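Suppose you are handed a protein chain with no further information: no name, no annotation, nothing but its sequence. What can you learn? This example shows the usual starting point.
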Amino acid sequence: MIKEKNFKINESGLEFYGKSPKANLNQFKEKLQEYILDEEGYLKIPELEDLALEGDNLSKIVSEFLLTQEYKLKSDNLSEIFYSVDVLMEFLELEEIHTILHHYNEEKLEEELNNRITEIDNNFLESISCGLDIAVMLINKYLGQKNLIYFLDSFDRLEKILTLYTREETLTRIGDALKKGLKSKDNDFQKASSKVYKNGGLYFINLEGNGTYAYQLNKYITMKLEGNRTNIYVNNSLFNQCKFLFLNIPVKKIKNYSEIDSIDEAAEKLNGSMEGRSAESFEISPETEFWGHWCDMKSYD
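A reasonable first move is to predict its three-dimensional structure. Written in structure tokens, the prediction is:
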């Protein structure tokens, strides 16, 4: 349940701030609806995007609105659809967005995807911060697993794309499609799945094996997930120094870090509060930690 927060309402729109007299939360929600919905009940995406910059308290109220209230989302063209989903991801998790896709005209959305799927290339994905995650979710839901595999098969450097853009739910969707495709009696589907499986590199290394993650970056360096620990071997000898993931960047705040271009620059700008004995504990799977180390070590590949 969202508690009453500090905000003020003025004629030009909404302003949210930390130290002020409290206003009535219901009044605020009514004004919020007036601010982000047009006369026909469509969500005004630019106004919604502006609210993403106002802080976590307002984000909780907006998130509740998006999950519980009636509104419509425009489905007129592919770029508009991807842009709106990208803004929604400022407030909602990917799986939450999957539950509200009915706010679009789904018939038009499916038609637009089907007619323009070839336009979703590297340049298109790079123009949207969560482009591949959105593409995989929409194609999988509306065009099916076979078309998802054909879409992924169109990329020459799939492993690099997965490294740059992909989150765990997306990998799960792709993995499920691959498992079906690799066993398919449809020759084209099976061949495309085999190609995607091969080009995906590390990400699908355990689909057919015994579930063990291992990756040889070059002739000197090998990484293995042994038990719940990622181990790095140099010339077949265990390397056990400076093996720590210390950056925690929330997805909803990723734009705050967009100007950081290297791990060295990140080390200068971000503090070391996650290192050492005082570090805060975060629950991530051993596989996710392995992918994090792998991404860091790819510079030696």
